[in-house]
């Protein structure tokens, strides 16, 4: 969903830029700046770190033991192309976007705070689903003790923050910019 919303905003930004080219009013310029800022923020804080996180974590765990993250039973309901759409294609598309469009990253402290907020919110959502249904969204969590879950969630939050920093460094390298 994050990727779909992000790329939808990218398309909207590009179309708006093309449709208003040459006859920009001050209001149109102001709106375009807001749209570009939203696009850049989403790339920095959500699309890149979450996209890279999903691909690396999903396939690492899948290769180790697919039943821990994507039980074979799901093959009956989710076709392979959709699984790859959710867990594979995210990475090349986000890298192509990073290479073709310069994104202005927020300050490092604001970016990391936003990534942490998202990670903690998602972890709380996963725990809430378990609290309400009694079932862990990710079967791997069934095998972890409460203390290990806390360490696991903390480690995942650190990893996604590292991916944020990798995205910032990669963006600066591609576009040869220094903060």
TrEMBL record:
A Gene Ontology cellular component where this protein is annotated is: endomembrane system
**Keyword field:** Membrane, Transmembrane, Transmembrane helix
Q: Which InterPro entries match?
A: ADTRP_AIG1
In terms of superkingdom, the source organism counts as Eukaryota
Q: How does it sit in the membrane?
A: Multi-pass membrane protein
The record's listing under PANTHER family reads: ANDROGEN-INDUCED GENE 1 PROTEIN, ANDROGEN-INDUCED PROTEIN 1-RELATED
Family indicated by similarity:
Belongs to the AIG1 family.
What name does UniProt use for this protein? Answer: AIG1 protein
- Protein species of origin: Chloroceryle aenea (American pygmy kingfisher)
Gene that specifies this protein:
Aig1
